[in-house]
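USER: Fancy drafting a protein?

ASSISTANT:
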Amino acid sequence: MMYALILAPARAEQVRKAVKEYGEVVFDQAGTMDSLGIRNAFQSAARVAADALILDIDAGPGPDLVAAVQGYRIARPYTRIFLLAPGRQPGDATVARLVGLGVYDIIDGTVEADWGDLVAQALTCVPATYAQAARWHIMSGLTGEEQVKEKVVIEQRPVGVVTIAVAGAAPGLGCTHTARAISAFLARQGHNVVLVEDSQDPVMEDYLKIIKADDGRVSKAGRIKGFDVFPFAKTGVDKFIERDGNFIFDELLPELRAGRYEYIVRDLGVADKKGPGRLLDPTWLCWWPAPPGALL
């Protein structure tokens, strides 16, 4: 196993010593970094083909750390990420956002704990699932109330397929990662699936180029993990902002019909003031995680 390390100075030596017992360290950077520093660290780490990344949450500012992990996820989607979260509790905003990006191996403990021992224990375990990390996927608001950070809307549409829309309450909560995970799951069940990127911050075009994706079933689409993807080209962002309510989904209706898809997964990015109006006449809405009275 090859490991990349991005650590805070307080735990760096303990973690290094533990990791060397289980494999080779191919990238190692420790420090309390600023916005530029943490971004550069992740860009450098992404150039190394590590099997796992061990990340200390105190290595950089929370929002910048989340943004850097999102970029790393795109470049290294299959690298397992261990998150050291000393002194953090469920409700921590940074941990919640990282869980939204698919970081499920959360190692928590007191600041004074033996972090070498905690890391060693984690390295011997099978990769964690969302079920194990779900308790961290909440975020306390200013009033102390828990906020739901992602919602999945399932609807039936005139094109005759099931549409699943994924939206987040704020940037960086993992909507794109969640949409890809849903698409891959449905494809593994033998369904004909397409992912449509309708996000305000599109990334799929670059991702498809990086992994050299195959062509999809119909024109304009790429194909990964058994499902088609319609990326939102960055050159269309201005048009996206200006065209009041007319999104890439609406422009792709002929292609979506031609593809004879059973499921359409829409990555809507941040839920905005247009709300469900962006979904065009839904007949069934299901909010996830579902609050009381969510089924309409």
Remarks:
- The longest strand covers residues 263-270.
- Residues 150-279 form a domain with the Rossmann fold fold (CATH 3.40.50.300).
- The chain has a mean pLDDT of 80.
- Residues 10 and 285 are 47 Å apart (CA to CA).
